[in-house]
Predict the structure.
Amino acid sequence: MLGTIRAFWNDQRGIAMILVAIMLPVLVGFALLAIDMSRAYGLHNDLQKGVDALALATAAELDGRSDSITRANLAKTTLLTEQKTKFSTAGDHTLALSDVTVTYLTGIPASDDTRLSAAGVDSNGVNWASTDPKVVSFSLVTVNASGLTDGAGAFATIFPASFIGSNDTMDIRPQAVAGFVQSICETVPIFMCNPFETADPLTSKTIQQAFASGETYSREFRILKSDGNAWNPGNFGLLDNSLVSLRDAIAMGTAGTCYNRNAITTKTGVTLGQVNAGLNTRFAIYSNSLNKYDKDFAYRPSTNVRKGQKSNSCNKYSPVTDGSALPLPAGTNYANGKSDKIASQISWSAYWLANHKTAYINVPSKTNPTGVTNMPASRYDVYRYEIDHTLVGDKSKNPTQEVGTPQCYKGTQAPTDNPDRRLLNMAIIDCMANTTKIKGHSQIKPDGYASVFVNTPVQKDDNSKDDEDASASEKPISLEIVDVDGGFANNTLVDKAFRNEAQLYR
């Protein structure tokens, strides 16, 4: 009997069947788990592409205008309605509005390790979400946890997880964050100190706030280059650019590079004469170093160069003094680089009588950001009125008989009105708050960008010297602000100069 038991114990025939019987459920389980994980990975990958596309589509509309969230929501609805990609086990479920949560944010945590909930609250308890269309610039898209076998992010597992006390469904919840990125390319490499910045934060205003309230309209802004030690309203400076010649960058109207809306870098070591020489080409005034370009279309003047000067003075700005021709009128009562507004329509009487030899008609305040058109016109409005009503060719009084059409430009291709050569796009910086950064040649976030109108050519204090002669100090650059970027603007600058892009951050 004992021998029989020993023989049976040592008999190995059929052991493979026993091992297979024991291991088969394990092998099948691992196979099913591998299949489920592969399906989960594939679904996550497909859903991630979907939420990435949705985040980019919605973020591309967050440009700071009052209807940005409305347009973003429309983009979301359109994309989810028109997309045909199928998700989930059933294979008949597209990504729908009910499957995702889209939250608009004013910013995102600095570290990618800081998690964001679908509501826009990070793991540190900071709430980044906002419903203000003028301040949001990021779109957070999260796939909802549906728990349904036919939901976008959920599917039934093949592996019978319920046998081990778990669920037989798997939830996939990818998330994406995209942000609105804006850069400006059609600009000159100049920044202007914000003329409405003060040392008191309670009274300081952004350029957008000042524009929206009408405080910029019809004021003359006179700006001088800083001495490099103090930066205040009434100063301007230079920006890094990829062109060899700053003079040519100003003359042609391009910085040679695109600037990020949120980060610009200042430049030092360039003489102001190059700025003046470049600006004055827009009035058909070509300094000694630029007179070889008086036939070059890239250096063309504006279609209206009326400036109170004899037409045959082609290399420097020398205003006439007998009143027989007048430039656009100067401002009064300057403080921090800005004048009072034009007080009344009477302020235009002398200009109109000298240059058009008739009594002044009340030109509408067409570009007034408040919408009021019966205020005294700005310099830019009068300049545009002369162009739009074919008054540029009118001769001024004797003996000057100046006309507004450029006489010193010799190019075969006539100057064009679009783009307007006396309009420049310029960065605005809170210089008092950023003095250290400006002097340190580091990146600065600008207060905004403005479209500025050049009122008159730039003069030297010693007008016998050439524009680029550094030995003669320059008089201020005279400007008017026509438009700004942001939600309070007339949108002429944004539509023409800015390049809008959306970028994935998470």
Summary: Confidence is low (pLDDT under 50) at residues 147-152. The radius of gyration is 34 Å. Residues 35-182 form one domain. The first helix runs from residue 2 to 10.
